[in-house]
Amino acid sequence: MRPRYTYGDSELAGDRLELVARLFEPTSAAFLRTAVAEPPPLALDLGCGPGLTTALIHRTTGAGQTVGLDRSHTFARRARATAGLGFVVADVVDAGLPCRSPSLIYARLLAAHLSDPSGAIGRWATTLVPEGRVLVDDLESIEADGVFRSYLDDVALAVIRAQGGMLFVGPALHAATDPPGLARVHDEVAPVTPAPAETARVFAMNLAVLTENRELRPRPDLATELEAIAAGERSCDPVRWRFRQIAWERTG
After folding, report:
1. Most buried of 38, 40, 224, 250, CB within 10 angstroms?
2. Which of 205, 195, 193 has its CA nearest to residue 141?
3. What is the pLDDT of residues 229-243, one digit of tens each?
4. The whole model's pTM is what?
5. Residue 40 lies in a domain
6. At a CB cut-off of 8 Å and minimum separation 6, what does 232 contact?
7. Distance of CA 233 to the CA centre of its chain
């Protein structure tokens, strides 16, 4: 049985996903505007969580219909209550996509959790209409020092690796051969440099969720340092995030 999503699907985990979605919305919106020239009749948001990315796709692309897919019943209920779009409980990795003939498939921060991201992308693409596109938006790198570096090295990288994923999956996706039937039409790196307090909020929330799920032993020292930065009680250099954004088009 494949391991569950690293961060689980508790209320705290949902709050974490909402925080992440808001932080990276501008960069994702820019990618969608660049890679999607016309409103797709049907757009799918894979691993949609509580639905903020689904709403972003719908709003940015003008899709006729946008459906979020997630294997968590908890997240699906939360998304239906807040986002007002269509949401389906489905395992998009092992069981394939239940929605046929989409024109757009979007996956943000999902590929990092997969043991075979290129294989999954190829399977998703078989459902696309001709000239439909699959967009992947995931981490290329995070440049950080001090407590932020400690969090990444001691927590994030280790936990994702233990579950069979790769936190910085962007370089591997960039170097991989395109899946059969797909042609790469966009491949760029987008930098994001939030204020240190914003990054600290994300990392502190990640730490809290992983501790709640017992993926990690409590790290009160690290939590205290992150919370101090988040509250503006301690200054530090900003973290430089980089996202690999790739779009493929179905050729046949």
Report:
1. 40
2. 193
3. 999 999 999 999 999
4. 0.93
5. yes
6. 197
7. 29
